[in-house]
Amino acid sequence: MDFDALWQRLRNRLTPEPAPAPTRTASGNADTRVADSLRKLIDDPAIPPSVRHELAADFARIESMLARLERGELHVAVFGRVSAGKSSLANALLGHEAFAVGVLHGTTTQAAQATLDEAQHDGLVLIDTPGINELDGEAREKLAFDVAEICDLVIFVCDGDLTREELDALKTLAATQRPLLLALNKADRYSAAERVDLLDHLRQRTQGLLRAQDVLAVAARPAAQYVVDDTVNRHGLSSEQATPPDVAALRERLLAIAAREGKTLSALNAGLYAGRLTDQVSARIAETRRAVASKLIRHYCIAKGVAVALNPIPVADLLAAAGLDAAMVVQLSRVYGLPLTRAESGRLVAVISAQLAALMGAIWGVQLVASALKGVSAGLSTVVTAAAQGALGWYATVLIGRAAERYLIAGKSWGEQGAKRAVAEIVASLDRDSILREAREEILKRLRRAP
């Protein structure tokens, strides 16, 4: 599998581009580019099945976004705390009771959506969400922010000055890079002067999060009026008369955004989400590479440690070990999608070994002495000496493997500070004693099994 080619394709293809001017032509181009990118990401055969399975929910979401783009829909999430009137506002915008409304906490426990009746031709879709301060708030708040991530625009509903919790939620939503509208609901409770003052205050508190013109007053369920109608009630008693919702300004703002920027917003949102999914895929591929590389290095550690321990010819075992290291580096280069020839691998091993020798000359001196002693020792001393030398060979292979891995991850480069610094950092990052202990135990176990 060509991991590197996949990684580069995903980076190049799905890095979000700057938003184009919201013209019909630019919007159409954005739709086409993003839709093509989403389809290629979904259909890319180079993505490992294990990664695709692990991110199945995210790929399903991409499928949903692609379908939404093709239908030309703009999805709008309605947020706010419990009792602020989110569901009532969504119903008022729709013109019918699509969402459950109640006086108890927790009426909206799952996200629901319905197409806005007056904007079906624009594909405007409202999504009602749980209150951000529900009693089991952590799970429901997460659901709310998950919905925001796949929506193109957010209406945040409040019914007075913003609490700290509401302001924090607004900041979190703004960080998702979605356009925001702030709807001051229950505006009928305030006098005209109070309403103007409160709107000005809200605009000041949310400065930098949303535009001043995107802070609007609404009344989703105005309080009923009591009137006296002598023609209906001969006794002159008052009767209750429902007051229609006042959401015209918000509806007009939504329809204007949908008409002018809807497709562009939807395309950019899909591109942002696809970019995050690309990062996730890349991270999973990197994890897969590291796991495969770790197994590969351990395999060569065992092979080298045992080969060094069992080779009866002094010094010749070290030459055999060098050959194993070169073979290991060739295999690692394939794992990281940057194949090396055997000659290139040998040169890389020589560079790493030279740096290791400079850093750890005493250890390699001991290894050479152990190699010479092994030829003249017998019995238990030979086993002990062989295990010690094999453990050092094992440790050297770990260092060479990790250093080569770092070189490959950086794209066949040691970086600005060169091989010396890179190898030194690898040496410092590993626990030598634990590696040597594990190596001795494994080699002794295998030596005892040998005929």
Uncertain regions spanning at least 5 consecutive residues: 1-27, 103-108, 375-380
Which outline best applies?
Answer: elongated
Total number of strands? 8
Q: Beta-strand percentage?
A: 5-15%
In total, the number of domains comes to 2
Oligomeric form: single chain
What is the number of helical segments per DSSP (H or I, 4+ residues)? 15
Q: What CATH first level of the largest domain would be assigned?
A: Alpha Beta
CATH topology of the largest domain: Rossmann fold
Radius of gyration, in angstroms, nearest whole number: 34 Å
Largest sheet strand order: 2-3-1-4-5-6
Largest sheet: 6 strands, mixed
Helix content class: 55-70%
Instruction: Tell me the distance between the termini.
Output: 40 Å
Could you tell me the mean pLDDT?
75
The CATH architecture term of the largest domain is: 3-Layer(aba) Sandwich
Order of helices and strands: HHHHEHEEHEHEHEEEHHHHHHH
Could you say which structural class the secondary elements and strand pairing correspond to? alpha/beta
CATH superfamily of the largest domain: P-loop containing nucleotide triphosphate hydrolases
Summarize the structure in words.
The chain has 15 helices and eight strands. It is an alpha/beta fold. It folds into two domains: 3-280, Rossmann fold; 311-449, no CATH class. The strands form two sheets. The chain has a six-stranded mixed β-sheet with strand order 2-3-1-4-5-6, sandwiched between helices. A two-stranded antiparallel sheet has the order 7-8. Strand 2 and strand 3 form a beta hairpin.
